[in-house]
C-alpha cells in the first residue's frame, strides 16, 4: 500500500488515502515522489474533476523500479513527470490535450509512488534539487514556450511585459534576464516589485496605483509598445495587453487568472497586425531545450514555500491566496 491524495468530484476537496501500488509494465518506470509543485490549474481542477483522481500535474522524484524493456532510465535516476505524458514533439493534438496529469480522468503526481511509461518522464537538470525541479513541468516549461518556442520567439534587446509574480511569471522574468531581454513587470504588491527588481526586472508597475498600466507601458517604451506580452490574466487583462504591445507584436496567451468572460474588442489584433499564440505547457523536446538553457545560465527556480506532504491542503490555500512569489511546493513523504 502507499499514501496518495485524491480529488473528489465536485467537492473542491482532497483526501489522503491508502492506495494499492500500481504494477510496473515492461516499458514503465516507478518513481518515488520527492516533491510536487502546485499551479493555478490545480486549483481549477479541484472543482472540475469528473471522478476521483490524484491531483497535481507536476512532480519530481527518483526511479525505484524499471520494467524489463525500459531503455531511458535506471534505478536511482532523478526524473520529473511530463505534464502531457504523450506529447513528445511536434504540435499539440486533441489526443494529447485529453491526456494531461491531474486533470480529466488522468492521475497526477501527488502520490507516494507514481508509475508511468518511460516516455512520460524526463531527467532532472543536474544543478537542481527535487523541490526546484518539481516546478519545471508546467510553470517553467510554459514560460519557456511563451518566450522562445512559437513562430515569433523573443530575441536579445526585445522588451517583454510580464503580468504578476506567480510561477510562470517569475520563470519568464528569470529567462528574460538570462537572454538579454528588457522587462516590465506588473504586480499589485510594491514588496513583490522590489523583489523582481532584485532578480533583474528593468521596469515595474503597481497596477493598483496605476490602473491604466497600458498607458504607462506606452510611456516607458516611448510610444512603441512592448515586443511580447506574457498574458496570464486572461479575459480581464487581454484588452489592455493588446494596447500595450507594439504594432506587429506578440501576445503569448497563457492563463485565466481574471476569468474567462469579458467584453474584449478584438480590433487591435487586426489594426496592429498582432500575433496571439495560445500557450498550453509544451512537449518533451521543448523540455530538453528548456533544461539546456537552465543549465547554461545556472537558473534556479524561485520556490516560495515548501509544505509537508500531510499539509497539501495548506499549500492549496497558500496558492489560492495569491500571496506567493514564484512556486509553491509540497515535499514527498
UniProtKB/TrEMBL annotation:
Keyword Coiled coil (UniProt): no
GO molecular function: oxidoreductase activity
Pfam families the UniProt entry points to: ADH_N, ADH_zinc_N
CDD domains: MDR7
Keyword Oxidoreductase attributed: yes
Signal peptide segment: none
Origin superkingdom: Bacteria
Enzyme Commission number(s) from the entry: 1.1.1.-
Keywords: Oxidoreductase
Enoyl reductase (ER) domain segment(s): 10-330
Protein name: NAD(P)-dependent alcohol dehydrogenase
